[in-house]
Amino acid sequence: MRAQSAISSFIFDRGASFLMPVYDDRQALNGLRNLDSQVIGAVYDQLYPEVYRYILYRLGDQSLAEDLASDAFVRLLEAVQDKCGPQTNLKGWLISTASHAVADHLRRVYRRPTEMITDSIPDLGPGPQNEFDLREQSNTVQRAYAQLTVEQQEVLALRFNQGYSLEETADAMKKNVNAIKAIQFRALAALQRQIGEVDYE
Amino acid sequence: MNNDIYDVLETCLQSIEHGAKVDALLARYPQFADELRPLLKTALSARAMPLTSPSASGMRRGRANLLQKAAEMREAKPAPRSRRSVIPMFQRLAISLGLTFALVFSGTGLVSASSTALPGENLYPVKRTWEDVRLFFVFDPSIRMVRENEYEQERLHEATELLAEGRHEEISFAGVVAEQNGQFYISSLPVILTAETKGMLENGATVMAVGRTDALGYVVLATVETLPPGSMVPLGRPIQVASGERDEFHLDGRIDSIREFDLTVNGRVVYLENTRIEGTISVGAQVEVEGYFTSDGRFIAIKIEVEDSASDDNGNDDNSNDVNSNDANSNDDNSNDSNSNDDSSNDSNSNDDNNGSDDSGSNKDDDSNKDEGGSDDGGGGDDSDSSDGGD
C-alpha cells in the first residue's frame, strides 16, 4: 500500500504529462489549495486536453476552445481558494464548469449573432474520399450539431466525446437516467435530420 | 413503447462502444431496425467527429496564464507567518483574559495587599510578579514604556522608604548619577561605593544599580551597570537647593537622636555648626533642615526649623505648611528622605486626619504607635514606628 502510494506520488511528482493519471484527486486538490505550482502544472497538463476537446466538440472553434479551457482552470484555482471547489472529482468539476462557459458563450452568440450558422450547410457529397472530404464531413456534422439544443449537445458531448456512461452523464447534468436516455434519443434523431441520411458503409 | 426504444438505443450505443457492428445490432432488434439504423449511424459519426488536439502553443499559453494567476494568488494570500502571529495573539488574549479573571476572582486581595510591600517582605515577590504579569500583557509599546517607567519609579520609592526606615535590604533600581560635594547620588538616593563595588559611577550617567540599604540612609552599592544611552530612568527628586556660593540642601524629617554636635534626621547625620535653630528640638520632632555638604561628605545644618506640631492640634495645617515651605525652596514636597509631610507615607500622620480635634485621644487610637512618654507633643503623630525604639 505504502509502496503504491510512493509510486503514484513519484509518478505524480514527475508530472502527469508523461504518463496516464495515476494520482489521487485529493492529493491534487491539496496542492491546488496550497497553490503549489508543480501540482497546478501537473493537473493542467493532465486535464487540459480533455477539457479542450470537450469545448471544441461543443463549439467547434479551436481558439475559443483553448481560451475557455484555460479559463476553466483559472476558475478551478479560484474556487479551490474560496473553498467552493470540487471535493473529489476534479475532471467532473472542470467539464461542468466548461459546460457552463459554453452555455454562456452560446447565449452571447444567440443574442448577438455575428454569423449565420444555418446559411452554410452544404449539400452532402457521396462520402469521404480523402482528407478534404473527411474534414468536410466533420464540418457537416459540426454544423448539424450546432443546431441541436444545448441540452442535446451536452448529452452527446458527454457521451460520445468524453465517454461518460449514462449514469455519469445523468450525474453531470443533474438529471435522472431516463431523461438522459430520452434526450440522447432525440439528440441523435435531430442530428440525423440535420445531416441527412448518410450511408457510411 | 418510447421507453423501450430509448432503452434499446442505449444498449446498442453501449455495444457499439464495445466494438459491435451496427448491422449485427439491428439484426438483434428487428422490430426497431428501421428506426434505429439512422440513429446508430448518426451516433457513429457523432463519435467520430474528428477533433484536433490542442495546439502546443495554446496549451503553453494557458499553462503560463494559470501559473501566473497562481502566483498572484500566492501574493494576495496572507503569508503563513502572519497567520502564525495571529494565533499567538489570540492565545495571548485568551491567556490574559484567563489570568485576569483568575486574579480578579481569587487574588486581588493578595495583589492589592502587596502593592505597598517593600523588598524583603513576604508579599514583595507577589508585587513584582504582578508587575511583570501586567507588563507582559501590554501590547502597545508606548503604554508599555509608561508602565515600565512607573515601575522604576516604584523601585525608587521603595528604596526611599527602606532608607527612611533604616532597613537592610537588597535592592536594585535605575537612575541618574549625580555627584554633590563628593557624595554620589543615584536619582537622589545617596549611594556609597565600596572596594567591592563592581562598576563605575560617572556624573550624569544613567545606571542600573544593585545594592543594600543601610541604617544610615545610604545605599551601599554592589554593582553599577551603565545603561545604554537613551534609556528611560526615573530622575528622582531634586536634592539640591541652589542658593549663593554654596550648594544648599533641604531635608525634611523626624529627629531620631540628638547628640552634642549632631543629630540624626531620618537616619542621616546632621552636623551642627553655628546652626540657627528655630523651635525646640526633641527626639521625634518634625523638622526642616537646610544645610550643605562639606567636601568630606558631612551634612552641615545651617538652619533647623522645628514644626510646631505639638502646640497645634490641627495636623492638616502642618501639612499645608510643609508644602508651602517646600515650595519656597523650589523643592517638590517630598525631599529625599522620609516623606514626613506625605500623608500616605509609612508613618505617623494618620492620627492627624482621623481625629485632629482630639490630640489626647490620638495616641490611644493609633495602637501601632509606640511613642515614648511625651504624649502631648506626640499628638502630631511624629513618633510612630519601630525605628523610634532604637533611641
Record keyword descriptors for this entry:
heterodimer; A: 201 residues; mainly alpha; Rna Polymerase Sigma Factor, Chain: A; 71% helix; globular; disordered N terminus; disordered C terminus; B: 391 residues; alpha+beta; five-stranded mixed beta barrel; five-stranded mixed barrel; 10 helices
The oligomerization state is heterodimer
Radius of gyration of chain B, in angstroms, nearest whole number: 44 Å
* Strand content bin of chain B: 15-25%
Q: What is the H/E string of chain B?
A: HHHHHHHEEEEEEEEEEEHHH
How many strands in all of chain A?
0
Shape label of chain A: globular
| Molecular shape of chain B | rod-shaped
The CATH topology annotation of the domain at 1-114 in chain A reads as: Rna Polymerase Sigma Factor, Chain: A
Helix amount of chain B? 40-55%
How many helices of chain A? The count is 9
What structural class do helix, strand and pairing data of chain B support?
alpha+beta
Rg of chain A, please? Answer: 19 Å
Number of E-type strands of chain B: 11
Question: Total helix count of chain B?
Answer: 10
| Order of strands in the sheet with most strands of chain B | 1-2-3-5-4
What layout of secondary structure does this protein have?
The complex is a heterodimer of chains A (201) and B (391).
Chain A (H helix, E strand, L loop, with lengths): L1 H13 L10 H9 L3 H23 L2 H20 L8 H22 L19 H16 L3 H12 L4 H8 L3 H19 L6
Helix pairs in contact in A: 3-4, 3-5, 3-7, 4-5, 6-9, 7-9, 8-9
Chain B lengths: L1 H16 L4 H7 L4 H16 L7 H21 L3 H35 L9 H13 L4 H25 L4 E11 L2 E4 L2 E4 L13 E8 L5 E8 L13 E4 L2 E13 L3 E4 L2 E11 L7 E8 L5 E8 L8 H14 L21 H6 L5 H5 L26
Parallel strand pairs in B: 3-5, 9-11
Antiparallel strand pairs in B: 1-2, 1-4, 2-3, 4-5, 6-7, 7-8, 7-10, 8-9, 10-11
Helix pairs in contact in B: 1-3, 2-3, 5-6
Question: What does the model show?
Answer:
The complex is a heterodimer of chains A (201) and B (391). By secondary structure, chain A is an all-alpha fold. Chain A has a domain at 1-114: Rna Polymerase Sigma Factor, Chain: A (Orthogonal Bundle). Chain A is 71% helix and 0% strand. Chain A contains nine helices and no strands. Chain A has helices spanning 2-14, 25-33, 37-59, 62-81, 90-111, 131-146, 150-161, 166-173, 177-195. In chain A, helix 7 (150-161) packs across helix 9. Chain A is globular, with a radius of gyration of 19 Å. The termini of chain A are far apart. The model of chain A is unreliable at 1-22, 117-128 and 197-201 (pLDDT under 50). Chain B is built from ten helices and eleven strands. In chain B, helix 1 packs across helix 3 (33-48) and helix 5 (80-114) runs antiparallel to helix 6 (124-136). In chain B, a hairpin with a 3-residue loop joins strand 7 and strand 8 (262-265). Chain B is α+β, with helices and mostly antiparallel strands and 391 residues long. Classes of the chains: A mainly alpha (201), B alpha+beta (391).
